[in-house]
Amino acid sequence: MRSIRRTVLIAAAVADAAAVATGVSAARKRDVPPPALDGELRFDQATRDATADDFGHLVGTSPDVVLLPGSTADVAATICWAAKRGRTFAAQGQRHSVWGRSSAPNGVVADMSTQRFVGRARGDRIVVGAGATWSEVLAATLPQGKTPTVLTDYLGLSVGGTLAVGGVGGTTWRHGVQSDNVLSMVVVTGAGRTITCSAEHHPDLFDAVRAGLGQVAVITEATLALVEAPQQVRRFVLSYPDLATMLRDERLLVRDGRFGAVQGAIPVAPSGGVAFQVDVAKFFTGSPPDDGVLLAGLSDDPAGRKPSTIPYPDYLDRLAGLESALRANGQWFHPHPWITTFIGDSRVEDVVDDELGRIDPAHDLGALGQIVLSPIRTGAITSPLLRTPAEELCFAFNFVRVPTTADRGNADRLVESNRAVYERVRRNGGTLYPVSAFPMSPEDWRRHFGPAFDRLREAKRTFDPDHVLTPGYEIFEDGPRRIVEGVPRRRLSRR
Ligand SMILES: Cc1cc2nc3c(=O)[nH]c(=O)nc-3n(C[C@H](O)[C@H](O)[C@H](O)COP(=O)(O)OP(=O)(O)OC[C@H]3O[C@@H](n4cnc5c(N)ncnc54)[C@H](O)[C@@H]3O)c2cc1C
């Protein structure tokens, strides 16, 4: 039965007092009582503060209220409530953003992890709650012999959180991003309407939600495409003497499609310099593939090949060991000033070479950090709001920085450096993957979206006219004045 919990009423009184400080009269707030919910609203400081930080540990602001939704109806009712109070609303999946993008200063954040139901795989699809993580999805599909088409390297991200940004993985070069492989979604718009959208029904909304940075709707449920899961993976980590040779093989591998997953990396070498590697995976069930055929014509160093045959679930969970190590040594909790971009094939070699010349790898990436340099056929990407270079082939070009220090000054230096990297990438026709740690102004976003900006703005006008949703990206400057103004993001201090 729906109920307004006692804690809500007590906490609402506390929040009324707080509202005076932010310029909203307590009387006005009392005019808008909290909605009746299946879940609950939490107003206590500890819960609010716990939602202020993200994986970047760089900026963050506590919300006024935290929603633990018990249903899609709760999300709708609370968005309407936030709007009436002149507040914003942001969904939070696993808070693995890196620049406060899931925050709602003075507003409401929804902890979507309460919406993590995972149905049974039925044929080529499965229905899941947006708060489910990809590992939870896999726990349901793999026993049924099925897998999502594209999986992020790290499986602890929420379905809603990655559909909101895109979701890049090892098979993206062929199958696009995760938001290209969602069949339909139940969403709640900024106007509080619950709509099921897909390529056939409400396609404008569907296209504005996929990789749409949470600007027009909150996803509460997603129907994901599934394919047959292979049982085994023949995996090689190929080593290259230099960037040019590595890129040559990446192009070749994408052209002939002999491997299912192709991912390039430039990790920090033990010597302090960098190494050039391509991680390739051949998925199979039954007889193993012929190594001679798989590796024919490649220019890597045969002595440096690291072959392995591993169960498919172990391959998917390949970052688990690194996560454990970083949690154990504390680096998981350090600031993560990441920058993630896409650079076109025609400029990739010059741009990456130039950036490598500018960095001190051990200092700027950290001994366990790396630059990602993975090929993607841009034609595989169909989410209109995911911006990629205007070339047939591009490369995910990411600085996955894992600082060995929590020093704030070091993090600030790297954030500044991110801005400079972005400018150089952009000048060379590259685009941003918006999981990056540096400020973006509305003008930056307009430039980023380019011809797609009008489409996003139109969708915003239609579905979130009061600019209630997901203020953390700071994309629009022409929305109605909301109470977030005057609440600067708090810089998190983690010395
Ligand atoms: C260790 C690590 C590994 C990563 N690996 C990859 C990778 O391999 N590939 C890749 O593409 N990315 C990767 N990322 C980046 C990651 O995909 C994004 O940061 C993603 O947004 C995080 O998902 P989340 O569930 O933590 O979302 P959050 O950080 O909670 O939210 C991200 C954004 O989405 C919005 N949002 C969250 N849930 C919803 C919803 N239900 N409806 C609408 N909007 C919503 C939030 O408001 C916010 O703006 C990685 C990040 C980390 C920290």
Tell me what you see in this structure:
The protein has 495 residues and is an alpha+beta fold. Among the domains are: 6-113, Uridine Diphospho-n-acetylenolpyruvylglucosamine Reductase, domain 2 (2-Layer Sandwich); 232-432, FAD-linked oxidases, C-terminal domain (Vanillyl-alcohol Oxidase, Chain A, domain 3, 3-Layer(aba) Sandwich). The chain is built from 17 helices and 19 strands. The protein has helices at residues 6-21, 26-30, 45-50, 72-84, 134-141, 159-163, 172-175, 203-209, 243-256, 291-295, 312-316, 320-329, 345-358, 361-364, 408-427, 442-449, 453-463; strands spanning 40-42, 59-60, 65-68, 89-92, 108-111, 125-129, 146-148, 182-189, 194-198, 217-228, 232-240, 261-267, 276-284, 306-311, 339-344, 370-377, 393-400, 431-432, 490-491. The strands form 4 sheets. The chain has an 8-stranded antiparallel beta sheet. Strand 12 (261-267) and strand 13 form a beta hairpin. The longest helix has 20 residues, at 408-427. The chain is globular. Mean pLDDT is 92; it is low at 1-27. Flavin-adenine dinucleotide binds next to strand 4, helix 6 and strand 10.
Brief summary:
The protein has 495 residues and is an alpha+beta fold.
Trace the largest sheet across and list its strands. Answer: 14-11-13-12-16-17-15-18
Quote the beta fraction: 15-25%
Determine and state the CATH class of the domain at 232-432.
Answer: Alpha Beta
Bound molecules: flavin-adenine dinucleotide
Looking at CATH, which topology of the domain at 232-432 would you report? Vanillyl-alcohol Oxidase, Chain A, domain 3
Give the low-confidence spans: 1-27
CATH level-4 homologous superfamily of the domain at 232-432: FAD-linked oxidases, C-terminal domain
Biggest sheet record: 8 strands, antiparallel
Shape: globular
Tell me roughly what share of residues is in helical segments.
Answer: 25-40%
Structural class: alpha+beta
Measured between the Cα atoms of the first and last residue, the distance is 47 Å
- Say how many strands there are: 19
- Put simply, the count of helices is 17
Overall average residue pLDDT: 92
Second-tier CATH architecture of the domain at 232-432: 3-Layer(aba) Sandwich
Instruction: Please state the CA-atom Rg, rounded to the nearest Å.
Output: 23 Å
